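Case study.
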Amino acid sequence: MMGRLPLLLALTVLAGPAVAEHPAECRVAEHLVENSFPLPQVARAIAAKKLTVLVVGAGSSMLPGPGGAKNAYPARLQAALSQKLPGVAVAVSTDVKLRRTAAQMAAALPADLAAAKPALLVWQTGTVDAMQGVDQDQFAQALDNGINVARAAGADVVLIDAQYSPRTESMIALANYTENMRWVAVQQEVPLFDRFNIMKLWSDLGTFDFYSATKKLDMAERVHDCIGRLLSDLVVEAAKPDAATPPGLQ
Amino acid sequence: MAPVSTERDLRLDLFRGLALWLIFLDHIPSNAVSWITIRNYGFSDATEIFVFISGYTAAFVYGRAMQEHGFIVASARLLKRAWQIYVAHVFLFAIYLAEIAYVAHSFDNPLYSEEMGVLDFLKSPDVTIIQALLLKFKPVNMDVLPLYIVLLVGFAPVLWLLIRAPSLALIASAVLYALMWGFAWNLPAYPSGNWVFNPFAWQLLFVFGAWCALGGARNLSRFLHSRVLVTLATAYLAFAFCIAMTWYVPRLGTLVPKFVGEMLYPIDKTNLDVLRILHFLSLAVITVYFVPADWPFLRLRVFRPLIICGQHSLEIFCLGVFLSFAGHFVFTEVSNRVVVHVLVSVAGIAIMVGTAALLSWYKRVERQGPRPPITKPGYAGDNT
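After joint prediction, the assembly is written out as follows.
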């Protein structure tokens, strides 16, 4: 009995960090997660031990099926944040509907923010705007409006751009919209979670096969799980007190 | 009236052929080989080259027709050319529909339920096809031909003015460009939004090319070779290159002062941002400076593939769009590795060059005319 104790201790010590780390397939994209701007409201919420997050998005923020809500990345974000921030009560609420443009989501924001009173707004947009060919200026303006409304309501903002979808790449002109979003994020000093380039890296490395046709949910669940984990990395890093200077100027 | 030069400047064909190759490489989504194209290293890309040279050659060809045969004949020829391009566009749209229908039928993935909505238009084909025929619904990367059609349809009066008062025509074009920026004019697209290449904006490059063809280049030639201009052009190209590097290494972006960033972005391709025009002009100045019209190297065999592609630009452009669809299909169905990217790119260019060579051969054969009639022996002129 006593002989096994050191072995058990050793195993726990070794297994501990492994449990806290992400799976290998998520980790390959870790270097693409840039926490270039700080999230002061989130830092304050963490210090107060209560973090509420509101995720506003369109179809790519949800998964179909009965287990969809708990397997999509908002729920995975809540799980990952709870794990990384022990002792902090993390609650992630969502307002996710199919086929919404940035302008439509910005119009719904005041009501959402008043109901949830989050410290952090995670805003996923761009795909539907690209599919509908929304005017670039209007798209940029909708993003600006939304960010200003969120800030006025006392929430930090993190933007998420479109998914990388190789099969429909030649049919949806995403490039301008992702570029536009990147520029608005820099101008408004809001971190951008670059889902497009992360998924592109996974596709190039062969981590996930985005070309395959399947009705099963397992790859989609793994992708959403990784996205939730990497997003939690971004949030926790950006909320640290010394995250005030952008990495290039350190 | 400004005299129209009669020699075909080989540089035009060379650079238009180059533009066609670059457009083909850029049109295959996620193509590793597209890293060598100029859009990654500056503000402008192959589209500017294509539109400028198309304006130049349109003025060259139809200007001569207008001077020799009058306004009506030249207009008729322009409209006929526009019709040919329209037919080519509709043919490419049919191929695009086939690709989409195949994707809709064979692809299903719960991760992409939102993106699959782009195939919704297949559910109402009656509306969509009419909108496509009206050039309001244009698939991704099929925006250049409709622009070319609109520019040619409106070109006859502009050409008339260019021949008589070239500077006035250029100024009018610049005024239209300025009004477009002021009033946000553009043509409507379906289901929403506007044309990806705003004809009111891109006409400026087209008319400028035409102006250069009709004597403007000669007037500018002394100015073009001045050291000051070449230095300015090089400086601007270097600046654009540095900004382009910040797109790939985001940390460098923090070195760009905020006011510079605010002045630059967004760099509007749809409305032909001034930065893009200046970048193209800088490239043109440098090119004209280093590659004179009578440069003997232009006749080297290694440039022949580019030149013959440039000589059949419409056909090769359509072939390029079709090959980019096919290339994307290969990436999807066969393999997505970089080796395949390189193979597909090289094969595509080889097919384009081969087709251009075939078209040149056809033209040569056609020009020889019908066979002479067989003369009976014994008659005068026994010299077959």
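Observations recorded in class. Chain B is about 70% helix and 0% strand. Confidence is low (pLDDT under 50) at residues 1-6 of chain B. We will return to this complex in the next lecture.
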